[in-house]
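Recall from the previous lesson that a structure prediction takes nothing but the amino acid sequence as input. Here we apply that procedure to Acetolactate synthase-1/2/3 large subunit from Oharaeibacter diazotrophicus. The sequence below is the only information supplied.
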Amino acid sequence: MSHIGDLVAEMLAQYGVELVFGMPGGQTTALHDGISRRTDRIRHVLMRDERNAAYAADAYARLTGKPGVVDVTVGPGANLLPAGFLEALNASIPMIGIVGELPLDWLSLKDKGIASQGFDQLAFFKSFSKDAWLVPSASALPDLIRTAFRVATSPRPGPVALIIPHDIFDAEWDEATVKVAVDARASKAPFVRSAPTAAGLADALALIRRAERPAVVYGGGVHGASAWAEAGAFADKLQGLVVTSLTGRGAVPETLPYAAGTLNPLGSYAAIELIKEADLVIWCGSKASQNTAMNWTLPLPEQATITIDADPAEHGRTFRPTVSLYSDVREALALLAAGLTRQSHPAWLERIAAVKAEGEAQKAEEIATDQIPINPPRAMAELAKRLTADDVVVSDASFSAGWIANFLPATKAGRGFLYARGQGGLGYSTPAAIGAAATRPEARIVTVAGDGGFSYTIGELATQLQQNQRVVNVVLNNGRLGWIQLWQEIFFKNVQSAMLESQSCHPNFAAAAAGLGLLGIYVDKPDDIGPALDRAFAHDGPSVVEIRIDDLATPIHSFKRRMREGADKPRPRPGTVYKLRDWKVSADLPEKN
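The prediction returns the following tokens.
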């Protein structure tokens, strides 16, 4: 006789889930027992921290389209999931949390931990999940598992929690007589797809044909819809500016002549400058968030706009679009491309090329310096030489995202760059690399993190080693929280709490990695970067390359020189940088010819 842990493991395997990331507890041991008898189809990856398990599951989901599955026990395990769940919720990543719970008869004793580790988990998860359910009985569990997959993968994808009481997990399940069925359509996001209305499509096509300087902003929704071929075909028909959000990188190769990189304060000079010159901006699978919309200064009042999104609530949330296409991204792009002949905008393409050349010249100047401490662009340029199109780059939050976006080009369509932009929380890269490496064992996984972000999850290096993963962890160590130092210096002229080092404290991350059994290399001279990366890339296992960088370096274009200009220079008031702009209405749809 089997138990309900077998039922859960069997249904996960039937849904095509190969990996479960998490930390066992007494209440969830039945699940681990069930997985152990199905290792030909599903296995468990033991993490050092439940928060990190969610990040690993997030990376698995981004690279496969399947829900990332994370398991945690009741109480202390459950209350570490919000960071990873919120990242997945805001980034539209399908995820399923299998959460342990007290026995059903004990639920009245959950308050204030009268029953050990108890608290109101259902209300807790409802606040940061797409949905959450408490399983009331063993007979209800199969349908709730099917519901969890359907909700997690349906537009807009996101994380859900399935809370299973201990007595239900341990209950008997007669596998021979009780059969279960799964809905294979919900094994991958999106579960269903929609198409735009004929009228909306006609209006959008008319607007595109009239545009003289069209631009498209590709967001993470392109990856969520697996719409890389359609995004490329539409861009080729449009013959206009193509930029991406950070999470949209790889929607099209950035080597294309009309592709200008990442639209973000941390992003590409060309993207930031050129988007302001467009007369039509198509926001495709992008929610026009604070950073992609440049602190909501975009779109400009005079710009016509088209929004393409499978979530109806996104249309008109931060600006009034000229045309709204409520549609799956892949379906809308295919129909738009089919309805267009190849457009011709030679003057616009010439302008794009000129501004891109200006940006490349600026980057070349930053790369060429031999300064000590090392300028991060020099390190990124060396890293770019060693990356292949099939490698996966995982970014931590803060400045690391900008160094990657500016100096590591996306040369291939597809999701080869993973960014923690749903929450923008530090500590994403190391555990996410575990999920990425487990999903693509044949690829090289490269992480880039600052010393602040890397400090969050350094214990998971042991997991990388235990899993024998080919991960190169690059740590850009400036001895401080770079973003916080910049903010405090510019706006307050008083660096108060950004220092991670002192006279008595100089953390050595390469040495810490070596102590855990990894290859650890410390670099403080520009000429040593290349050889260090060569050693790391040739190493059969995980490594850490710690690079000592300039503490005043920043990828934010508007701030790059301000840190060195001195106190006599004018500086903005804090409210002028992150200020919600007034509601602006885009231009009305022009009359049809």
